[in-house]
Write a structure and sequence with these properties.
Blueprint (H helix, E strand, L loop, with lengths): L7 H9 L15 H8 L5 H7 L18 E9 L5 H7 L1 H7 L2 E8 L8 E7 L6 H12 L4 E5 L2 H7 L2 E4 L1 H5 L12 E2 L6 H13 L4 E6 L1 H13 L12 E6 L18 H22 L3 E6 L6 H10 L3 E2 L2 H6 L4 H17 L5 E6 L2 H4 L1 H16 L1 H6 L2 H11 L2 H9 L2 H7 L16 H16 L7 E6 L1 H4 L5 H19 L5 E6 L6 E6 L4 E6 L2 E6 L9 H15 L21 H6 L11
Parallel strand pairs: 3-4, 3-6, 3-7, 7-8, 8-13, 9-11, 9-12, 10-11
Antiparallel strand pairs: 1-2, 2-14, 4-5, 13-14, 15-16
Helix pairs in contact: 6-23, 11-12, 14-21, 16-19, 18-19
The chain binds 1,6-di-O-phosphono-beta-D-fructofuranose.
Length: about 600
Amino acid sequence: MREKYLPAARESRIKSGGRLPLFQPGDIVKTLSEQLLEMESHRSIFESELRRLPLPVCPVFGSAGSPAPIRFAGSGEILKTPDNAIVARSFPLSIEASGNAVLAFSASNANPPKGKRVAVLFSGGPAAGGHNVVAGIRRALGPENTLFGVTPGPKGLIKGNLFEITDETLRMYINTGGFDFLGTDRTKIKTDEQFRQVKECCVRHNLDAIVVVGGDDSNTNAAVLAETLFRDVKPDGSGVQVIGVPKTIDGDLQVDGLLPISFGFDTATKIYSEMVGNILQDTRSSLKYWHFIKLMGRSASHVTLEVALQTKPAVALISEEIAEKKQSFSSIIDQIARAVVARSRKGINHGVVLVPEGLIEFIPEIHYLIVELNDVLAHNDKEFSRLHDSARLIFIQNKLSSENAALLASLPDYIVNQLLTERDSHGNLQVSLIPTEQLLIDMTARYVREIDASIPFSAQSHFFGYEGRCGAPTRFDAAYTYNLGLTAASLVLDGRTGYMASLTGLGDGGHPVAIPLTGLLHIERRQGQDEFVIRKALVRMNSPSMRYFVSRRDDWADDDHFSSPGPRQMWGPAAHQQPITVALNSNAGSLEFKIG
Ligand code: FBP
């Protein structure tokens, strides 16, 4: 059946060139059945229009139509952490080459090298904009160099699964969400055998450089790879460069004045804000529910803070504040219960509580329990894994201090089971699996009853996580990532290794910057042993965004002042908004960003 989709009136609008037409004059008008079939191959009207959006470039790359790679020079800023001396002993080659100096744009790379063979991989959780990073790399490398995609993630590098990325293979992925072009995984390259396999892959594919798109753990891994592959990898004695690109929806990869935010944060928080805004509208309509909404973000509360600033709920817990104030678990519940009671006494029996995914690890008494549990599990993993489920708790309790054993015993089964599950390959507890929101509901119900049994308290729980990671990138993430890709490829062509690409000046066209990875390394205890890590950037109590939140939250608790920001916009006046936290923290003049 070939139905004509457009009614006559719409056709005449196309001809008259009316404002914001769905189709442009001259477009071939599709039938309904053609349109439905196209949706099955990622060619919905929305996706097709996204692919047509312009990719702006920072002024230093030249024209948007043909961006050119740039060269870098030391900006004078030398990065150091308190663990600098130990880092220097373990990363001598990288530090000798970089001097831990931040690099900024110095000139156009008029004669970039030819014949370079570069591989790119995604590592860790997906985040919107990854495909544009690849597009930026491809674009800056130009036709004289070759780009390979690694499938999937670090595991693919170990196995040597590479394919050549051409403009044609990339075309369908421009401005689309997810990491499905290459896939991703969380393998940490750490054993001698794994490093040997990576070197073998580099030799087999004659690679000159690897770009690792990842979060704090993956960029730590990039620093280790850069040092390991610095020289003597290929038969001619040359090495392989390694460049990192900062990704994670958690927003916890930030460097003061040098890296405003990791990519993917803006898209995820705008998606969650739409959903939370809709729920707030529902609470005000149905007038009977409290919604406890856990928001993704493994450790830091940047996502929760951003969504709170976007939507203004009655309560938003910030894990870092709880840790700083050394708030006990019972005092957190008391705080929520009192908000419920106070609102109820004014006739408001509804509200929203935002709960950061990582909350549980920040509550002091539970934090100490998890630290001890991690150590005990790391040192007894073989014996523990052989035990039947029913015997595991007793086994662990016998190895814990008496306070921690008692605390573990006091928690409901659904929390204990998750605390005892296997850690990921970087030693992280899988906090997304812990139903903290349900625990808070159960405990709040009890406290509210104790304060005043006549107060109605009916609650719903939600976890917004995976819904936000792979949405089509916002205009902010789309532009940011494309320019991160241009920066990463420029670093490769400039012969650099051990750097992470970044952009500053997001209200001012955007300025590419390169951050020496070794300048970010600290020592942290993971899985029972000290390891190098790029420390997660947590929410700071004295940051402008946190101070603004603190100055407004009592009003939001007192009465409904919520905002429902609606879906993220790709076209029109609302499309060019940066995250509120980024705007506040960078002292921006307005919410609008300007890249290009
Ligand atoms: P990355 O830091 O690797 O980008 O991952 C972020 C994240 O989305 C966290 O917010 C979340 O805790 C985790 O991934 C969940 O991923 P998984 O399902 O692999 O545990």
